[in-house]
Design goal:
single chain; Rossmann fold; 2 domains; 3-stranded parallel β-sheet; globular; binds guanine
């Protein structure tokens, strides 16, 4: 088994981005790329994701601004905030950390983000363009998975790829991307979800298995084909006295047992999560250079 090392890959790509910031912006006297992040409420996981994004921005020489609001903010007020950030010409990329509180309609909020600043690739315009194979911001986690497959030279053409989970953020877009007519694509994709009967009979046929269900340790060794490539998108915070933070991260895959059976696997932590942040940085470079729009 070989690790698909998201940490190593993220470090390499961040160095490439930092060098691009120097050459394409600083050396030309242009303002460096700037991400604005909107965070509503005090969900610990969301706070930790935002802290990770701020740290990555600093590492590559971007500016980041975090706009924090209490959980009680109204939908109308949040829409006003987004319109204000849309119109701020100093901001290249705009993200709204999800999930939002229940009284706010996430779709309505995402629709307010200018597609030109939508570095998460969540706006219907970007999703529509992705489906049509037009230039767009790809959603960060699927883009990170494609980058890992590309940089580790894992063949996808003609392979059986099984995706577990149909979220708008991961499962649906990665299944579309892997089935596209494209270098990293041309796979036969099966998308499984909570109403799929006998999932094991499907996963055990997968050359590439992408797991994004949000169920701790769901994938066990008996579900995985010998020498499959396994990508674990799950992130669960498990309370632990062994760490300073008071928790440990675990995925949707039983890493210890599954790793003995597969050819490649992403660890949690140190796998897809770090690639998501890097994809966001790459999308911000594209936004700042106005490559897509
Ligand atoms: N919540 C979980 N994943 C994501 C992500 O990729 N972007 C945003 N904005 N929120 C998330």
């Amino acid at each position: 088994m070989k690790l698909l090392d998201g940490k190593l890959m993220a470090t390499q790509i961040k160095a490439e981005i930092a060098s691009d910031v120097q050459q394409s912006f600083l050396n030309k006297g242009l303002p460096v790329p700037h991400i604005a992040a909107v965070l509503v409420g005090d969900d610990p996981a969301s706070q930790s994701y935002i802290a990770g994004k701020e740290k990555a921005c600093k590492e590559v020489g971007f500016i980041s601004s975090v706009y924090r609001y209490p959980v009680t903010i109204t939908q109308e007020k949040l829409i006003e905030v987004i319109r204000f950030l849309n119109d701020d010409t100093e901001i290249d990329g705009l993200i709204v950390q999800l999930p939002l509180p229940k009284h706010i309609d996430e779709n309505k909020i995402i629709e307010q983000i200018k597609p030109q600043k939508d570095i998460d690739g969540f706006h219907p315009v970007n999703i529509g363009r992705m489906v049509l194979g037009l230039p767009c911001f790809l959603p960060a986690t699927p883009k990170g998975i494609l980058t890992l497959l590309e940089r580790y030279q894992i063949e996808t053409t003609g392979k059986n790829c099984v995706v577990l989970g149909r979220s708008h953020i991961v499962g649906s877009p990665i299944s579309i991307l892997l089935s596209r007519k494209s270098t990293i694509g041309n796979a036969t994709v099966t998308l499984c979800h909570s109403h799929t009967p006998n999932i094991t009979s499907i996963t055990s046929q997968a050359d590439i298995l992408i797991v994004a269900m949000g169920k701790l340790g769901f994938v066990t060794a008996d579900m995985v084909k010998q020498d499959a490539v396994v990508i674990d998108v799950g992130i669960h915070r498990i309370p632990s006295d062994e760490t300073k933070s008071g928790f440990k991260l675990k995925g949707d895959v039983d890493f210890e047992k599954v790793s003995r059976k597969c050819s490649y696997i992403t660890p949690v932590p140190g796998g897809v999560g770090l690639m998501t942040v890097v994809s966001l940085l790459q999308n911000t470079i594209l936004a700042a250079k106005k490559v897509i729009y």
